[in-house]
Amino acid sequence: CRPRLAIIPAGTVNVLALDLRLPFRIDRACEVIAAGKTLSIDLGKANGRRFLLMMGAGIDALTVRNLDPQAKRRFKELAFLGTGLKAGLAEQPPVFRVVVEGVEYQATFFVAGNSRYYGGRFGITPAADITDGLLDLLLFTGTTRAALAAFWLGVPSGLHLRNRHVIYLLSTGAEVTPLDPDVPVWFQTDGELAGCLPAHVEIEPHALDVLVP
Predict the structure, then answer these.
(1) pTM across the whole model
(2) Fewer CB within 10 Å of terminal CB in the chain, N or C?
(3) Is residue 34 a part of any domain in this protein?
């Protein structure tokens, strides 16, 4: 018998609770726990480090690095959007390599989404299913500040998926490596800095049992 994870939502932006449609009232969350209904969800891994929601590299990780904790508490998911836009305008994002099922791409921004939500109710990988055994991979190939600004501004409405610089794939994993080994490219998992590329990203299907409504 595997242990089951019970969640009482807390924190600034509880993305997993949103994805699993968990109630945010403590009394109702406790009712969910008492009912005992279980869902087996996938976990992602980046260099062996597990993540529930997403792994991101490039400007995504710069956003996490630069995020002001006070702004996060005050503006919640809008803080992620604003910081990402600011980071893209202030710094020229490095180009790195992403290999998916033997096909090589170059990107300045990469997200491997296990969850459909990212930084709150924004859907960077809106088709992601936390139970399907796959990662939703979003690659942004634009290299100019204007292109990156257009991408971030399209995120709240979902128009970023129509951006000509966006590639959207489904796979069980990816290899993400820097083009120039002398230029560090940061990556993050679940909103926490995790190190610099390279990163081996993979899915671990049905790895965790969670109590759900």
Answers:
(1) 0.86
(2) N
(3) no
